[in-house]
Structure formats: C-alpha cells, structure tokens
UniProtKB/TrEMBL annotation:
Pfam families attached to this UniProt entry: polyprenyl_synt
Gene3D superfamilies assigned: Farnesyl Diphosphate Synthase
Protein name: Probable farnesyl diphosphate synthase
An example Gene Ontology molecular-function term: prenyltransferase activity
Keywords (A to Z) from UniProt: Isoprene biosynthesis, Magnesium, Metal-binding, Transferase
Recorded family membership: Belongs to the FPP/GGPP synthase family.
NCBIfam families xref list: FPPsyn
Cofactor(s) the protein requires to work: Mg(2+)
Annotated organism of origin: Phyllobacterium sophorae
Amino acid sequence: MTDQGFSLFQITLQQRAASVETLLSELLSDQPHSGEISRPARLMAAMRHGVLNGGKRLRPFLVMESAALFGADNFTALRIAAALECVHSYSLVHDDLPAMDDDDLRRGQPTVHRKFDEAAAILAGDSLLTYAFELIASDETELDAQCRVTLITALARASGIGGMTGGQALDLEAEKIKPDEAGIIRLQAMKTGALIRFACEAGAIIGRAGTKDRDRLAEYGSAIGLAFQLADDLLDVTAEARDMGKATGKDAAAGKATLVSLHGVEWAKLQLAGLVEQAEEVLAPFGEKAALLKDAARFIADRRN
C-alpha cells in the first residue's frame, strides 16, 4: 500500500482510466476528422454521454497491462483500449434500451435513451461500434497491417454472433426458457466474457507475443470474464442500487436463471475464489511482471459495485 492508502493496482487503474478518458474526449469532439463531412452535434453529445460517464475502464486497463507484459508501445495499446471501450459502451447503450434490458440509470446517470431518445441511443451505439474499427484500422494506430487485421478479426468475433451480441440474444431467450447450468455459463462467456477475453488477448497481439503466451492471456481472460459476471450476479442479489448506480434485484424479479440463483451466495463466493486462483496460475510463468494482472483478478472477484 502507498502512504495514501491506495494500492499500486488502484493507482494504475485510475491512471489508465484517465488516459483513455482523455483520448476518448479528443476522439469524440465535434470537430470532423479527415475524410468526414460533418459530425452532427446531437449525435456526438449522445455518444459522449454513453462513453464519458465514468466507469472503472477495466477493459482498457486489461488491454494496456497485457500489452505492457510484452513491452508494447503504450500509445498504440491506448488506442486499442479506446476502441474496445467504444464497443463496450455501445453494448451498454443498446442493452439499456426498452427492447432489451429497459434500464433508466447507468453509473448513476440517465441512460442515453432517457437523456435523449431511443433513436439517438440506437444511432449513438451504431456509431460507437463502427468508430471502434476505424480506430484500429487507422494508420495512426502504429501497427503493421497484419497485426491490425488480426485485432479487427478478433474484436469482430468477440463482439458479434459468437460473442457479445450472440450472448445478448441468448440472454433475451433465457427470459422465456430458463437455461441449465451449462447454458448459463455459455451465455455469460459470450455476453460478458468475450470482450474481457479479447482485452487480454489483444495485449498479446499488440506485443507480438508467441502463440503459447497469447493462449495464456486468452485463458486468463476467460477466467476473469466468468468471475466478472459471477460477481455481477452476486451484486444483483446483495448490493444496494445507490452503490451500483443502477437498479438491482432485476434478475430475481424477472425470474432469470443465474449461477447464483442456482447454487446460492456462498457457492458463488467459493467459485470466485477458485477463478482467481486459476487466473493467478495461468499468469505464474510471467512472474512479477504480471503482478497487476493478478491484482485485477482479485479486484474483479471482490468488487462492490
């Protein structure tokens, strides 16, 4: 711990968050970029509301720390981190819509469709998604063409049919037909876990790691992705809405099947401990270089909001 009572992990997480916030603010300005005709002011305002509304920026942190593990350029990793945060934010904007999860609050603020309207929220989400791939493909992201193609392909898979959006489709189906345990794990690995896994694997891609190390980072990402969703389901049962910045108890009210509803709170806590141990074991070959990534696993399991 430091003199101020904050751990190195907490300080680094805040620093990474500040860096990505600054870059996103610049990228989402009203001033048109080269090749653009104009940037509609209301659309840009809706996009900024969906992105620049706080949050821990955990996924960008994972990109940047995984890339640092292999000595990758920090600014390049930051641009990939910003692209990933655009995809993540798009998913939240769309998930909050009445046709999806129908939420009024996100991080303690009105959701985009509440502050603006549903059309603005849809367009803001669409724009954030497409902008993410532009950021990766741009020459300003100083990576060779093959590396950029690899990142684009991996992110498309993580966010598309077999990943996040497919998981959201399964989540909507689960409101009518409750999945079994294997179905819940598959749903969560897609909806939540896929982007977290990409965040970790992306760092290895940026750092031009070998296949073995890239697989290690992907395995680590899978473990903490499952832990993230399990912790989220636990918080939906145990946390207060004022601490979460959004409504809680919605899963139980909707009768939605989760691993917590199937097995209980104490089982979930034991599983979280096991997932943290798994994540730490996967990172063991990297030694002290992976200390912050190990801390991230514990942070995900122990979080309170």
